[in-house]
Task: inverse folding
């Protein structure tokens, strides 16, 4: 982990929960002057600890409440097979996450869809056409038990 002190940790904790907080509110919440708070946030941004600020959208209201985790096993492990797969999977907007795995599957994908019928279309038209795919196993999420974007600080 990068070198951060307790004050940085408090700043990061607040920003992970409330990314649009004003500097004045943030400085008050972490008990710093506004200028000192601004300098610290700038240093955290410049150091790459804070990568970006985003708006988190409600999947249901955006029409894609169905979450499917897809385990993919490739036909081989050569660099060109992995590179081709990763290049093409990055082009599918329904794939929110793609992780290279250790274990039985080579990749784990988090896919969103309108419903099971929409996922069948994504599977048939996009996932099944990815290069090097030997096997796929899909698991539908029934309910979100815990979900956060906040890292422990």
Result:
């Amino acid at each position: 982990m990068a070198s951060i002190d307790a004050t940085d940790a408090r700043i990061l904790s607040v920003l992970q929960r409330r990314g649009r907080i004003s500097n004045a509110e943030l400085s008050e919440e972490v008990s710093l002057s506004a200028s000192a708070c601004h300098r610290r946030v700038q240093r955290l941004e410049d150091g790459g600890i804070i990568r970006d600020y985003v708006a988190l959208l409600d999947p249901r209201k955006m029409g894609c409440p169905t979450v499917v985790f897809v385990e993919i096993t490739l036909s081989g492990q050569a660099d060109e097979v992995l590179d081709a797969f990763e290049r093409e999977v990055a082009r599918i907007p329904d794939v929110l996450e793609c992780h290279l795995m250790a274990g039985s599957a080579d990749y784990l994908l988090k896919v969103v869809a309108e419903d099971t019928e929409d996922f069948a279309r994504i599977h048939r038209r996009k996932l099944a056409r990815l290069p090097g795919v030997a096997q796929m196993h899909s698991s539908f999420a029934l309910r979100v038990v815990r979900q956060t974007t906040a890292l422990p600080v």
Remarks:
- The radius of gyration is 20 Å.
- The chain has a mean pLDDT of 96.
